[in-house]
Design goal:
Blueprint (H helix, E strand, L loop, with lengths): L21 H9 L4 H13 L6 H10 L3 H9 L6 H12 L5 H12 L9 H11 L2 H13 L6 H13 L3 H10 L5 H13 L3 H13 L3 H11 L2 H10 L5 H13 L3 H10 L5 H13 L3 H13 L6 H14 L2 H13 L6 H13 L3 H10 L5 H13 L3 H13 L6 H12 L4 H13 L7 H13 L3 H10 L6 H14 L2 H14 L4 H13 L3 H13 L8 E6 L2 E6 L8 H16 L16 H9 L2 H12 L6 E5 L5 H13 L4 E4 L4 E5 L2 E2 L6
Parallel strand pairs: 3-4
Antiparallel strand pairs: 1-2, 1-3, 4-5, 5-6
Helix pairs in contact: 1-2, 1-3, 3-5, 4-6, 5-6, 5-7, 6-7, 7-8, 7-9, 8-9, 9-10, 9-11, 10-11, 11-12, 11-13, 13-14, 13-15, 14-15, 15-16, 15-17, 16-17, 17-18, 17-19, 18-19, 19-20, 19-21, 20-21, 21-22, 21-23, 22-23, 23-24, 23-25, 24-25, 25-26, 25-27, 26-27, 27-28, 27-29, 28-29, 29-30, ...
């Protein structure tokens, strides 16, 4: 374990006529100042001789936007109270830098400062997060010397720590010594066995739990671990089924995407509390059924129940997934009116929601009004710029984030690299990737290497992309091969694309994207027999290409369209409008691009297939029903094809309309015949 970092503390003169009171300083701290202002407050605390105030110092530690600065403050405290140390360790154990909690422990040990039993659980949680087995063993030994190894909370922490470090045997030894085991301890141990593939041991421990006659706890544990068959069996045996048990079943099924089973139990419940409603709404939000989540939220309101923060986060997530701006605005107003506006997690979620609903301005507005920001706030804003193709602002905010002494994490770098990739900033992307490793000491994961493969691939530097795949220290996964495969598809590199698709299929034989790409490659080469064999294989396995679907929101109602869809009540008018638009576009040289239609059809049939794409139908619906100057916003589940991209650009110019399309990976803002992606997508 390295020595505690000792950055210099800036003592900025407060320039005040009179020294502030502790109450004034506390109020100032509660407004979540920037690092510069926090340093000034710190200087005022020292200057006005309030550094003995436990409450002030704790606030200073917890509200600092820079973890290294918090650590430096703590290192200068002469004799920190155990309660202060514990709170700080807990704060660090939950932060983006859990290893800092170990630095605090090191100082406490070296200086002989008292450590009580409340410090050990968060400390062990930090060890588990960094998988620091050596440090964990040392802490275990120290706890033994203090006589804390018999404390049930410390023991539970030790079990979790050993399991996180892959030491199942040591975890079980601690577990067996526990004189009292609550449901958390049982769950952690059984879950550890399951994650390690030791299912017989998990079942044996389950039988031991059954003998303890705690059926409801067992059922809850199985639901939380995803063993829903066993949870259901216990649930059916139990009578009567109380609220806690039923809620656990709803939560378990929802979390593991068995949404119909969850809803069945939910509908059978006579009594439902907010936890149960939240579990069901969250289940819909996370199971690609955002409209159901919002419907259920409306039902919750109609019953006069007030949502909590957990519910609101699920609702905001559902709205983000749906991509409907008007609903997003309403949810934002609702959150503010009901007292959620000051909550950091809510504001972070609102940034993401507005970005995914196509409004960068509103996302940025939320960010600018926030009195407190953390790494998630900055990362959400960077990701917002990235998916909208605004690489300049993404990079600018990345540098501002570092200037504010907020340490970026691995997710931040995914967003920045994504921005570089979709803007063709190869050199900048390489520099940022190097800084992540050398400056910020973050080991790249698959998603980072995937971004680099995508960065080179989009720029048609396929040899460099392949070199990344071949030299990366991790075994290439589906994401890596998928990135290379997609790049080959964009640039028509069939040989390497076929190679990447086959490698991907070795890892995931039923991957629809790889099978479709292979089929398309064979179709381009007119190898119709190979195409037929592949499609027969897909049919046998029940694999189908994901169908294109586009959504448009008008007058608080969401309308969905599939390719060649004629189910809409205004279908006749939509196709009439489409014919009119096509006629107008042909006058300025438009001709349908059928290169994306890789089926054995006559050219005229191919043109019809292209012209009936779902986003064109949604666009025409918007032209018919939207206001003359209103922006048309469309959400598409697949990547926009070349023909639709050209089509949207021309319509934006001829009809004088702004069009925003969110496809699978990014946004396209069409205006005056141009697209925000600059035709690089």
């Amino acid at each position: 374990m390295s020595a505690l970092p000792q950055p210099t503390i800036s003592l900025v003169s407060p320039n005040l006529k009179s020294l502030p009171t502790p109450k004034t300083l506390l109020k100032t701290l509660s407004s979540s100042p920037s690092l510069t202002h926090l340093k000034q407050i710190h200087a005022q605390i020292l200057r006005s001789n309030h550094s003995h105030s436990h409450t002030l110092i704790l606030k200073l530690l917890l509200f600092s936007p820079s973890l290294p600065y918090s650590l430096s403050i703590f290192s200068h405290l002469p004799h920190p109270l155990p309660s202060l140390s514990t709170r700080f360790v807990r704060h660090l154990s939950r932060s983006s830098r859990p290893e800092f909690a170990l630095f605090v422990y090191l100082r406490l040990r070296n200086e002989g400062i008292k450590i009580d039993r409340f410090t050990f659980p968060p400390l062990l949680k930090a060890v588990a997060r960094v998988e620091g087995l050596a440090e964990g063993k040392e802490i275990h030994g120290f706890g033994f010397k203090l006589g804390l190894d018999s404390d049930p909370f410390v023991q539970t922490g030790l079990v979790g720590m050993y399991l996180a470090c892959g030491r199942v045997l040591e975890a079980r030894l601690v577990f067996d010594k526990m004189s009292y085991r609550d449901i958390v301890a049982w769950s952690i141990m059984i879950d550890g066995y399951c994650l390690s593939g030791l299912f017989d041991d998990a079942l044996e421990l389950f039988e031991e739990m059954k003998r303890a006659n705690i059926e409801s706890a067992l059922m809850t544990m199985y639901a939380s671990c995803g063993c829903m068959e066993m949870a259901q069996k216990l649930f059916n045996q139990m009578a009567p089924k109380n609220l806690v048990v039923s809620t656990a079943m709803v939560s378990g099924y929802s979390r593991h995407r068995r949404i119909e089973d969850a809803r069945l139990i939910f509908d059978q419940m006579v009594e439902k509390d907010l936890v149960c409603w939240s579990a069901m709404i969250s289940g819909y939000a996370e199971s690609d059924q955002p409209q159901e989540a919002l419907r259920l939220f409306n039902e919750l309101q109609s019953l006069g129940m007030r949502p909590d923060q957990v519910t609101m986060l699920s609702v905001i997530s559902a709205c983000a997934h749906l991509g409907v701006l008007e609903k997003a605005k309403w949810i934002h107003v609702y959150a503010d009116k009901n007292g959620f506006g000051g909550a950091l997690p809510i504001n972070n979620a609102l940034i993401d929601m507005y970005a995914k609903c196509g409004s960068l301005e509103r996302a940025r507005g939320v960010f600018e009004k926030m009195t407190r920001r953390n790494v998630i706030s900055w990362t959400s804003m960077i990701n917002a710029f990235a998916i909208h193709g605004d690489a300049n602002n993404a990079l600018s905010f990345f540098h501002k984030m570092k200037e504010a002494h907020v340490e970026p994490n691995g997710v931040t770098f995914v967003g920045v690299l994504y921005a570089c990739s979709h803007a063709g900033l190869v050199d900048e992307g390489q520099r940022i990737f190097a800084s992540m490793i050398n400056e910020h000491k973050i080991a790249p994961k698959h998603e980072h290497y995937g971004c680099m493969v995508d960065l080179f691939g989009r720029a048609n530097l396929l040899r460099e992309a392949l070199e990344i795949v071949e030299t990366m220290p991790l075994a290439p996964n589906v994401v890596i091969w998928g990135s290379l495969m997609a790049a080959c598809q964009i640039h028509g590199e069939t040989e390497l694309g076929e190679f990447a698709a086959k490698r991907l299929l070795e890892l995931e034989p039923d991957h629809d994207g790889a099978l479709v790409l292979l089929s398309n490659i064979y179709a381009k080469e007119k190898k119709w027999q190979d195409v037929g064999e592949l499609r027969h294989l897909m049919k046998e396995r029940g694999i189908s290409k994901e169908k294109g679907c586009s959504r448009i929101e008008l007058n608080n109602e969401v309308h969905e369209f599939l390719m060649a869809d004629r189910n809409h009540k205004q279908a006749d008018k939509i196709y009439e409008k489409l014919d009119e638009v096509i006629s107008q576009l042909k006058l300025v040289g438009y001709f349908p691009n059928t290169r994306s239609v890789l089926v054995d059809l006559e050219e005229e049939e191919k043109r019809e297939v292209v012209l009936w794409h779902s986003e064109k139908l949604a666009l025409c619906y918007g032209l018919i029903n939207g206001g003359k100057d209103s922006c048309i916003r469309i959400v598409k589940n697949l990547r926009v094809c070349e023909d639709c991209h050209t089509f949207m650009k021309l319509v934006s110019k001829l009809y004088g309309r702004e069009i925003v399309v969110r496809d699978r990976t990014r946004f396209h803002h069409y205006k005056d015949g141009l697209c925000s992606c600059k035709d690089y997508w």
